[in-house]
Each structure stands twice: as C-alpha cells, then as structure tokens.
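Subject: Interface between my chains keeps coming out wrong

I've been trying for a while to get a sensible model of this assembly. When I model each chain on its own everything looks fine, but I need the whole thing in one frame so I can look at the contacts. Pasting all components below, labels as-is. Any help appreciated, I'm running out of ideas.
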Amino acid sequence: MEDVRDLKALQLDALKEVANIGAGHAATALSQLTNRRIMISVPEINIARLEEVPELLGNASDVVAAVLMHMLGDLTGRTLLLFPEAVGRKVCDMLLRRPLGTTATFDVLEQSCLKEAGNILSGAYMNALSDFMGMLLLPSVPSLVVDVSAAVLTTTYLNFGHERDFVFCVETEFHIDSAEGLRGHFLLLPDLASLKAIFDAIRLT
Amino acid sequence: MSPAPKETIVKVAEWAAERGDAVIVTLGLGSCVAIMLHDAAAGAGGMAHILLPSRSLAHDATNPAKFPDTAVPFLVERLRALGADPRRLVAKLAGGASMFAQLMTPGSVQMGERNVVAARDALRAASIPLARQAVGGGAGRSVRFHVVDGHVEIRTVGSDAVVI
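Reply #2:
Try treating it as a single job with all components included. I did that and got this:
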C-alpha cells in the first residue's frame, strides 16, 4: 500500500475495531486511576493532507497538554494522548487526589503525573492490541508538551511520521464523568508500513 | 480610537502579502517556519508559513508557500507587485522548534532545524539579509507581523511575548 487514501471500507472498519479494543482497555485503566466513569466514542479514522492537520481535532489555536510515545516492536508508529489544557489540570488533580481546581501550573510533579497517565493509557492500549493480534508491542518513554494544538499536531507528523502528503490517525474521544464536559483524545498513529502487519494479523488482506 | 488594523491569518503552507497597517498572523508554529519579508520604505510585508525543507520530501510540490526555496521568490514577486523594491527587503524568521525532543533518534536532524537551515539558504539565494530571528527551542510560537513598521510579536505558551 502506497497511500492511506487506498484503504478500503472493510480495512477502515477493521482498524476502527482494533482501535476500539485498545481504547476500551485504556479507558478502563483511566477509570481505575481516577475512580471515575469514562465514556469512549466510536473510533474515527481521520485522513488529511499534512496542511490540514492543525484543524484535525477542533480549534487549532487551543492549548493542549499532549503526551507522545513511540510504539515499537512488531508495529511501529506513535500514540498521542491529548487533553485541553484545563482538562489536563483537572486530570492532575484527580490523579494526585487533590480537590478539582488545585492545579495552577504544570510543574515537575504535574508534568510527571501526565506523562505517567500517558504511559499507563498507552500501555493498556498497546497491551490490548498485543493480545488481540498476537504481537509484541513496546512503548517508549513518554514525552509531554503543553502547547498550541496546531504546533503539537504538525510537529507530531513532521518530525516523527514518514508520510509528507496525506497523513492519518485512528482517533478515540473519551469523556470523564460525561456531565462535567471533561474530554480528551487518544490517537493511534501507526506507520503506513505497519498497517499491512495489522491486516495480516487479523487475516484481512 | 483608530479602527483595529486588518488581520490576515496565514495557515500552514499558506502565504499573505499586505501594505499599510495590516497585521499578518500565524498561529501554532511548531517545526514549521514563518518567513517574513519587509520593505520599510514601501510599508509592505509578506509572510509564508513553510512546512517542509525540500520539495523532494513531498509528492505534491505545486504549492509555492510550502517550501522555502519556492516561497522566498514567490513572496518577492508578490511584494514587488505591491510596490516593494526587492533590493530593500529584509527578512525575519520564526519557528523551527523541536518539540518532544527526547523522542528523537539520537544523531538525527529534526525537521524544525532543517526548515530553519533551508529558509536561511533560500534567503541567501535571493540576496535578502536576515535581520532578526526567533528559532529553535522546545516551544511552539504564534506570530503577529506588523506590516507598517516590520515589528513581529511572538507568543509562546507559558512565557511572555517577545518582539523582534
């Protein structure tokens, strides 16, 4: 496969199902960590021109807390956990067992806390994919930035991806205690070459 | 009170050229670089938000604002059409950050740095002096380029704005 635009409907559906299994496990982990109900959306496959990436997930100028990790092993690519800045602060409060609204800045402890959340969520996601597909998947160390969404997303693709024209991600939105409007995104960014390995593993070729 | 100056937003791989009291804005530069050219005497300025250091990295290389070596001559022509003299142009650069730096493979050159180098090369090829720059580092930048006098405000999340 040369181009993500060549993916067939059945392959897209299969990828969504794979993502759903991963995101389900990640959501369970987040739920246990925060002791809250987590709802996840049906995964979406976003295919966009590189120039359109800033608008991929809503407002390009919003500030987000983002944890990027490499996925290594039988599949290669990256995972990206994104919270709007205000939600990122509340997630820190939940994980550090503090009253909501305590976190003012992302100091060393808060940064470490978000990276650990990324680590645990990505770990759960990759474990689920490993089990389901009979593969070995290993996460790298996490890296955190708090920056404008447009800069985070373009850099993720430019610096770490290999495709320079059309790019894609498998995205799951999750809500923490849905009434409070706390949401985040989990993005799986497999390298194009790894898609074939996924389809082979689930006998869809 | 005078009316607010006209703002033109430049998205990724787009460009703008203006005269007078216009402000050219681009938001969320990560590894991308904003190349800004200014002719003070004519009060004209232009910006290109370049995405990739070389046309060889993309299949579709038709958009001149996407790459430094095509963006610079393209902006020069647009500014000439607005009454600027190419010999008077000076340049400013912003962007080229290396976010998530600890995930880079040791020894590899990251895209932000390559974009900055390519932008400087393109300016040299066009004999345009580089006046000021705010490049590199680990944080994204949002840029407001005031065409009337060429000053550039740069905002970074978590720090004070700087002017170049």
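Reply #3:
Confirming on my end. Chain A has one domain: 4-201.
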